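Recap quiz, item 2
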Amino acid sequence: MTDPGWEAAWRPLVDRIGSDLDEPGVRFGPDPVEAGAIRRWLEPLEFDCALHRDAEAARAHGWPDVIAPYTAMWTFVLPAVWEPGERPTFEDGSRDAQPWRSVISDDVFPGAPPTSGMFGTGISIEFERPLHVGERAGSGPRRLLDCVPKETRVGRGAFVTFDRQMFADGGSGGGPEPICRVEAQLYLYDPAPGADHG
Amino acid sequence: MAEPVRQRYAEDVRVGDPLPGVALALPVYRLVMAAGATRDFTAIHHNDEVARANGAPAMYANAIFLQGMWERALRDYIGPGGTIRAIRGFRMARFTTVGGTVRVEGEVVATGHRDGRSVVEIELRTVDAGGVVTVGPGRAEVTLPGRP
């Protein structure tokens, strides 16, 4: 039996297409880019390039210091899982307990109905430059580009597309410098029983 | 042991040239490493039960790690003197699930000059152990230096 109400629940978000979803300003990640964090980022990829570990080599190619991979900007903009003064991360000790706050906060859309599932479906990035050691990464507000309710093999939800500018602080707490513009699409959904998205 | 990344020059590139590509075994261990390294701790990327409850067949690689595989494929090809201008159409059509060996493949699809730089467009895709394209095909735009 179909339930036409589920699509209507997305109307408040559909009505916001073209508008900013977040407060103005740049929200910076908790830590400056560090050589050790870059090394650990490269490790599971078995990725070696002197630009990412050798300051002299990076300078020889015109960079001010060791650079992070371009796509590592996501990592350096993510918020802390827990910060001093906050309540405990997990509210119970169950095996699959989840933190009370999502670190991937891009999945929270004002006006969207509550959903329990989310995955990214598409990303395009126009880069200005990579981050370098000593800089902090920040993200500007999301602008909603599209919201299309759709039932798929995994459940009912909506494909939500937004863009945002990402920044570096230049390493000295200076004004934000753009490093890239991201357009991303997520699928937010409630899983259907027995669904499979092979 | 991997070869050090060598510099490629614009004059050496032709449309149709294949990239060496990247192949990585994808056991749970690597997905856990990726969660810690990328700080994407979403449970669907390291917990089969949570992944299945959300409609995936098993835990699967996170988007930052998969973009990192594309970047490694690009950097291995362009060398340290190249830059990456864009990654477009990074479309995750399928889950890149745990197990087997995942590969990034690609080839040069266009060359030219833009803003005074030599620009190369490269098509990339991620292919799982069963030969299924899980990400892409998308396109990257990179710059290469000219021969000194």
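Chain B is about 20% helix and 35% strand.
Residues 21 and 33 of chain B are 21 Å apart (CA to CA).
End of item.
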